[in-house]
Design a protein that fits this description.
single chain, about 220 residues, alpha/beta, Rossmann fold, 6-stranded parallel β-sheet, two-stranded antiparallel ribbon, 8 strands, globular
Length: about 220
């Protein structure tokens, strides 16, 4: 049987979350933006946690101060800079080892992330991973818009995006393929259940409990 292996990105392949750090990478030479950015992001996070707004609004509030209105050329350059540093210094040691093992076995590898495509694409390319799903940014005449071109690739939406990739691009036959999923977060429980083998990587508290209840493997990649 052929294998398809799906990796979450933040805190699974990487030691830390990528989105917030990338946002500050884009404004590191603009200190006058730091305070309003932090306040805006904090308020948006509070509204999301309180149930007033969807999760994607947190991304939008941060983009408003750091990226919206910037050219695609500039943003791609910043994303590539960040991705190179992340691949060189920001990956979990265990993630590198497991990723290389799956490559050696000839498995088809997918990154499935709620992070934006602007960031996920160069990381995937540097890791020589051909397939990925992410939250897609929207551009008009080469300038970034505040709206997104897709739904937030998170939770059940991430599973739907993975299924579309499997069906439309990889054209897989479930009876001939085994699927394995690596993630740190309970938000990926739908993909873990969809997969033949689920692996909880340095899991958060909720996922650690679910892993015991649902017989997912638990690993530490520190």
């Amino acid at each position: 049987m052929k294998n398809i292996v799906i990796f979450d990105l933040d805190y699974t392949l990487t030691k830390k979350g990528t989105w917030g750090r990338f946002v500050f990478h884009t404004v590191k030479y603009k200190p006058w933006i730091w305070l309003p950015l932090i306040l805006s992001a904090g308020f948006a996070q509070w509204r999301y946690k309180a149930g007033y707004t969807p999760r994607i609004s947190v991304k939008q509030s941060m983009m408003k101060w750091s990226m919206v209105g910037c050219s695609k050329i500039k943003m791609k350059k910043l994303a590539i800079e960040f991705a190179r540093n992340e691949v060189l210094q920001g990956l979990r040691p265990g993630a590198i080892e497991i990723l290389n093992c799956h490559k050696a076995l000839g498995d088809t590898i997918i990154i499935a992330s709620a992070a934006v495509d602007l960031l996920v694409k160069p990381i995937a390319e540097l890791l020589k991973i051909d397939y990925w799903v992410a939250t897609n940014m929207s551009w008009t005449n080469g300038v970034l818009r505040k709206e997104f071109a897709s739904k937030n690739c998170y939770g059940p939406e991430k599973l739907q995006r993975v299924k579309l990739l499997l069906q439309d691009t990889l054209m897989f036959n479930r009876s001939e393929i085994l699927i394995k999923m690596y993630t740190d977060s309970i938000s990926d429980i739908d993909i873990l259940r969809f997969s033949d083998f689920g692996v909880a990587v340095n899991p958060d508290r909720k996922l650690a409990k679910a892993a015991i209840d649902e017989n997912f493997e638990i690993v530490n990649w520190n």
